[in-house]
Amino acid sequence: MSFAAFKMMHWATGIEHCASGFITHSSADSTPKIPPITADDIDSDWTTSTKPIGPVPNLITAAANVLEVYIVRIQEEASPSLAHKAAAEPKGGGAVLAGVSGASLELVCHDRLHGNVESLEVLPNGATDGGRRRDSIILTFRDAKISVLEFDESICGLRTSSMHCFEGSDWVHLRRGREFFPRGPLVKVDPLGRCAAVLAYGLQMIVLKAAEASTGLTAPAEDSTFRAAAASRIESSYIVGLRDLDMKHVKDFIFIHGYIEPVVVILHEHELTWAGRVAWKHHTCMVSALSVNTTLKQHPLIWSAMNLPHDAYKLLAVPSPIGGVLVIGANTIHYHSQSASCHLGLNNFAVPADGSQEMPRSGFTTELDAATATWLTNDVAVFSSKSGELLLLTLVYDGRVVQRLELMKSRASVLTSDITTIGSSFFFLGSRLGDSLLVQYYSGIGAPTLNHGVKEEVGDIESDAPSMKRLRRSPSDALQDLITSEELTFYGTGPNNAQIAQKNFTFAVRDSLLNIGPLKDFSYGMRINGDPSATGVAKQSNYELVCCSGHGKNGALTVLQKSIRPDTITQESLPGCKGIWTVYHKNLRSDSSKGVADEDEYHAYLIISLENRTMVLQTANNLEEVTENVDYYVQGTTVAAGNLFGRRRVIQVFARGARILDGAFMTQDLSLKSSNTEMNVASDGATVSSVSIADPYVLLRMTDGSIQLLVGDPYTCSVSVINPPVSENSDKLVLACTLYHDKGPEPWIRKTSTDAWLSTGIGEAIDGADGSTHDHGDVYCVLCYDNGDLEIFDVPNFNSIFLVDKFVSGRSHILDTFFHGAANNHINLTNKYSEDIGQVRKEANHSIKVVELSMQRWDSEHNRPFLLGILSDGTILCYHAYIYEVSDNASKTEGVVSSQNSVNLSNANASRLRNLRFVRVPLDTYAKEETPSGVCSQRITVFKNVGGLQGFFLSGSRPMWFMMFRERLRMHPQGCDGPIVAFTVLHNVNCNHGFICITSEGALKICQLPALSYDNYWPVQKIGLKGTPHQVTYFAEKNLYPVIVSVPVLKPLNQVLSSLVDQEVGNQFEHDNINMEGTYPMEEFEVRIMEPEKINGPWQTRATIPMQSSEHALTVRVVTLFNTTAQRNETLLAIGTAYVQGEDVAARGRILLYSVERISDNIQVKVTEVYSKELKGAISALASLQGHLLLASGPKIILHKWTGSELNGVAFHDVPPLYVVSLNIVKNFILLGDIHKSIYFLSWKEQGSQLNLLAKDFGSLDCLATEFLIDGSTLSLTVSDDQKNVQIFYYAPKVSESWKGQKLLSRAEFHVGAHITKFLRLQLLPTSADRTMPGSDKTNRFALLFGTLEGSIGCIAPLEELTFRRLQSLQKKLVDSVCHVAGLNPRSFRHFHSNGKAHRPGPDSIVDCELLVHFEMLALEDQLEIANQIGTTRMQIMSNLNDLSVATNFL
Predict the structure, then answer these.
(1) What SS3 state is found at 593?
(2) What is the C-alpha R_g of the chain?
(3) Rounded to whole angstroms, how far apart are CA atoms 143 and 135?
(4) N or C: which end of the chain has fewer CB within 10 A?
């Protein structure tokens, strides 16, 4: 392996940062929700206690380098039109709270950045101009990069508004000689949006001044795309050195409320202390408040507070009208403002500063280190503690003086990494250890109070989301004006009367975002329903990844399966099948009763088109053939079939005609003539090639490229043929066409037209009042011509309303060229081509055509349509529609310029969809397949309900599901059946919302989707463990998974302390000054042997091996040992452990060997211990080496042989110096990673019983995982480290730099941006190129699949040198020619991060597929241009990228 490619396959899901702000809409805009319940007047609002929810801001989340912006969609209970949909949607349902029955998150934009987000804030627009401006997002990256992003409606995505970089030679003085900084830049913003500040390099504060609302960066006249500063912007920046203000160690800072100028409060430690000195020196922190004057660049100190505890770590700004700041420590909470202060002790470790006066304490003990917090109301903050409990802190205040703090326990929830309030009734718990939750909260006033002994507060938020429990909360002054002054002072002091103004907070979980991180370990096992006879790509569907993810109570086993393996219900052999359709039949008698909802109606007939005949089957109960008894056309193949007239009729289209049937009886028979009459002689051969049905219209495309439309009459249930005018006057052939049915509560496309739609829209709605056509919505016809243009017409009038030049080229945004004219050009990257390149270009362009189109919108209030196009070279173009309202004066001039040729300009413009635009959606995982040009294959099937999901199914040689969740398409391949020729949905008694697919081998399979979570990059199933999983391995012979799990157990303190004493030496503790009461949580370890019970069902623990007290299981492996007595191999389970008893006790560990047997009934598992021995040093890794057992025991490795009852040492070697992290074995080679001292490469010689050190890496490196990488006959050593890098070494004793082979040489290095915890070696799959070259040495090539703590999965795959050089030169071009989000440079991101340590840069031999994937998203012209510049062709690059994705298409 000299060259490799780095490829992500599953992006990070663990959310580290979240914030909320008005990004996609301003607070004054119409809020994105269903219209609220109108209250008559203000008083009724108080009585009904359903305050209408105010404008809801967006949610912004960052997981490693993935930035996402969501809209919170609210479902209000009052709208009856959505009642049936709420019942159908499982998301966000639950009890009604404050008039809201549910809420869900809908994705607006998803960007992958070339850098990990270190901190994230939203710059608010301030209170100026009535909240018309939107907010901006401020991101910071290491070491001191700041990007400000705003949402640009014209491209429906994020645009960078300013970039600030304080790195490099100009700013090297800011580092003050330091190389390493423990944390990246931290950003905070002023609550009124006047400025922001970033703390970088430990003590440098960068102040970013925001632009005033009036002064935009560009005047609105110059550039119509920038409307006068639509969002808040940064104007200038300067640096404040905090060292000059006599601050040494800054821990946190924040802007506070209630001052005319921005005021920043800084928490810093004026002199350090450490654990051994805490008893004498414990109150070392202080806060200082500086007033920031951005114009004069001055920052005078206005107040400060000393004597804060040393463990204070976080500040929280108290909102107006109270103001001030909360200082949060591990054991105390302090409130400070300019005028007042108070504090609250949380446990016994809280001591007052001077040791004299008694401290007010909370009613229960807790610890707040590593807590996150946000404000629910202006006097109540919610804390999420490190144990996942929600605590409510109330500020009891009078005027602006806070009298005391009260802390209340609330519910348990997920372990959070960040928390943010969204608007006035939601908050979001972002977590990297569990699933992130969107929670609605409601504070009912005057609700019945609970007594003190209620046990309700321990409930877990997730587990009882629907059952809505009330929670107690401390008093607040929201009702002060209702209580007289005497009572007020009374309730301020007396605890009993405090119940008067009790607020009850009610929580409801409304939505959750799935997270599979942190992946500590994974193993590669067989699925239960695997097919042992499968070969090739289909064989990959037999495997799954079982991962250890989460922590504590969020710990889980996560089962990941990249490809979907459906559950087969029945299977029939049916050779020669061409197509398959299911149709409904409603007869009039049942129709009047409306007994069954549309979703639950069973299919009536199944129509199967074979090579020269058609079969018809009845599907109501069982499938039985009724071909002889029906009037369907059965003598030849069927082109398409579907329902018309609200499912009362079936239409069957065949090559030369169509039939309308009522159930089994034909009501009309049509024969189709070609439209081009003058070409009559030639056109006898024109038959129907493709069909699109949108009730009551049917669009036919003939083989000669003309189209015909069948128009249905709902009263007579008959159809008539019309030739649309489009096909007569144009000589352009139609290559692909589809009908788009714009239905739903309100038609979406109409909104994109000009204001003229109002009159027509209302008229149509009134027409349909008789009930026949009221749910039809609008129908549009989308055509693609052979010159690559796309046009949309309205049906049945066929007025052109939208036209795109060169749809084939796949630009990132498309809009109506007729209306906007040249406006399309500024989106292209380059428009100046020289003549000769232009010639090449034309030839290349002619070969690529559109072969199929589909446009679809699913029934939901806010869904926007997707447009899918398949090109002849296998590319899939996926576009998502959006609305951008063009200002009139700008567009009229363009319109006149661009359309001088059209005569009636005004009429044409009136009905055009000038506000409609499409944005291209990147499709990550699909591998292409060529379709021969001219063959219009119907590969796209739209499904509305397969197992409750909706989306597209793409048949063909690599079938793929496109599932629609939260306005994003999730793509999941289905590889287990090979190529699929036909697909349709089926819903009947035996198959509930399932589907039928027909494989190329001629098998008809009736299937259902397995019950997994599909709203993830890969389908996933989570099995909760209620403990932390540490390591998992796969016992292949028995199909079992042994897992190391630790569960925290509360133990008495004296028991814990006695275990910390070395028993042999016999010291006794002097327990005079130690309080021995109380408990302390200790982790108890066990090895659980688990197996999946049935397909996608719950997992069962078959056996448990407990560890002794204070013994940690460190590793579990299945080893094959050669029994020297019995002369046979035995497969055993080996466990390595360590006793963790503090620094006073010498380290010991145990090696345990177990045999695992299944008992006769094959369900119970019998585990028997065959051997156990205590050794010096922790046993941190073990492996079997040619029938021997290799143990890493403390600072040496020992090789043992197994006699059947004893382990006898045969060889040892004194490496590593410290502690083995991982151990890998290939043949007789050993690769070993040390926690600080990098990697060691050893070999084992049988004849002399020797372990020899061959070579080592001389640098120091904190290893996390190691593995061998095999490419043909070359062996490389891969290692990942704690700085998120990967390095590849090789052993070359003949090369002079290797010091006669002692030193490992670097072959490649790369920055992954995530902590890799495990590598897995998998053989590359064969690609098309490999099959053509006979005898190529490609059989023994392996890729490394890896998992990370951020929840991402990727692989490193070897490349040929020629391919590598080609992709590397393409990568260098793409750095400049792609517009990168937030202005980040991919090259600097992928440089090795040495973190200040000396490091010799290694060769750059890894290409970054995260950057190469942008090539497919470029417009076709730009692709050809770039390919031409690097001296290759677009086809060549595409086939290289495609081969790479086929070869690594694992699982």
Answers:
(1) helix
(2) 34
(3) 25
(4) C
